[in-house]
Design goal:
single chain, 14 helices, 2 domains, globular, Tetracycline Repressor, domain 2, mainly alpha
């Protein structure tokens, strides 16, 4: 039987490098900071700006709340990555031994310690922002814990990849609630129009998840679940396009609460002409290009949607 390094800790003394250097290498491979920081920054600012604009009729943001929401979001995404490392440890050790944890670069215990340390910072930010933010933070942690246990339905969910994705993607609603609570929490003035933003974020999460798991048939790997393998490449691409459009529709409806959404709708239409043309060309080229194009355009589509929200809200700007 193949000897699997399940814990990802390697042999004692096998990796003498200090933790900061190993952690930096881990981030480069599994959690590239530039992209996650950019996405978290735009995502959190879009949510805060929209909440403020819907609640007050103009965008009035606190610098502390903006920074706290952005850092909390980055930390949440990192913690979700650590949860994934734990959930996937057996499969990674068997089918993806080149990844940092199974090859012994960093251990699950070290990653867990870092994730827990970040929880103290998240809690400090939340306490300074008020009890509503604290409650939303704890709700996010509880759902993340359930995700880590795969809702105690691991075998059932893994046999149903779409249901598995839907159950895990609900975390986006908790992240949305936490981000926007930095605006509405201190005033206890939740704007119901935010529900459309929550729906868009849920769809945006599906876009990212689908986009990173679409590959050409010749690039499928044993033991690695992909939506292209489960649904077929063309059908997976169609679903991705539908998720992108759905997210844009929800954002447009949400922005209609601020005024005529013609500019947003036109921006999405122009973007989609570019996006879907690029997706089609990527499909035609095949090979490794498919996964690169789909992953990149999925992230770009989500980022573009939040930028449209942010630009619309800055027309009602006023940062305190």
């Amino acid at each position: 039987m193949q000897n699997l390094n399940i814990e990802g800790s390697g042999k004692p003394g096998a990796n003498p490098l200090p933790l900061p250097g190993r952690f930096w290498t881990y981030l480069q491979e599994r959690f590239p900071l530039p992209s996650f920081v950019l996405m978290s920054l735009v995502f959190s600012l879009a949510g805060l700006s929209l909440s403020s604009s819907l609640r007050l009729g103009s965008c009035r943001l606190s610098l502390f709340h903006c920074l706290a929401a952005m850092l909390t979001t980055v930390f949440l995404f990192f913690q979700l990555r650590v949860i994934d490392e734990h959930k996937d440890r057996l499969n990674d050790a068997r089918y993806l031994p080149e990844r940092p944890v199974p090859r012994g670069l960093i251990s699950l215990k070290e990653l867990s310690s870092l994730a827990i340390a970040l929880m103290t910072l998240q809690l400090a930010f939340a306490l300074l922002a008020g009890k509503v933010v604290v409650l939303c933070l704890f709700a996010s942690w509880v759902y993340m814990w359930l995700m880590g246990r795969e809702f105690f339905l691991s075998s059932y969910l893994k046999e149903r990849p779409i249901l598995y994705m839907l159950s895990h993607m609900l975390i986006m609603l908790f992240v949305d609630l936490l981000i926007t609570s930095y605006d509405f929490g201190p005033s206890n003035g939740f704007a119901t129009g935010l529900l459309w933003f929550f729906a868009a974020s849920f769809m945006s999460g599906m876009v990212v998840e689908f986009g990173r798991k679409i590959v050409a048939p010749e690039c499928e790997r044993e033991g690695i679940v992909s939506y292209s393998g489960y649904l077929g490449l063309k059908q997976a691409a169609l679903w991705l396009a539908l998720f992108i459009i759905a997210a844009q529709v929800f954002l447009t409806v949400c922005l209609s609460r601020l005024g005529p959404p013609l500019a947003a709708g036109l921006a999405f239409l122009i973007y989609d002409l570019f996006c879907f043309t690029a997706l089609f060309l990527g499909l035609k080229k095949g090979g490794p290009t498919v996964s690169k194009v789909f992953a990149a355009l999925s992230n770009m589509s989500v980022l573009f949607g939040y930028l449209v929200v942010l630009l619309n809200c800055t027309m009602h700007s006023g940062v305190n």
